[in-house]
Design goal:
This protein is 51% helix and 0% strand. The chain is mainly α.
Length: 82
Amino acid sequence: MITESTFIRIVRDDLKLPLNGIDLTDGLPADGGPVAWDSLHVLRLVAAVEKETGHRMPVGPLLADKRLGAIFSAIQGAVPAA
């Protein structure tokens, strides 16, 4: 399972997007949120999470939502517990 701190580190360091723990409850810019987010970011996030965890990630569920908390939850659900 991927932790919230690991998710935040990936978004900050690998995707070069500003993010803090509070942002996980916010929407993305179309919803008034703090991070400019698009499908390219999702693909980069998938690649970074796969590299971090060694597990393949389904892209579809990550494209379906525009809330960082929901994206994080989808990632958590897709990565088996260690």
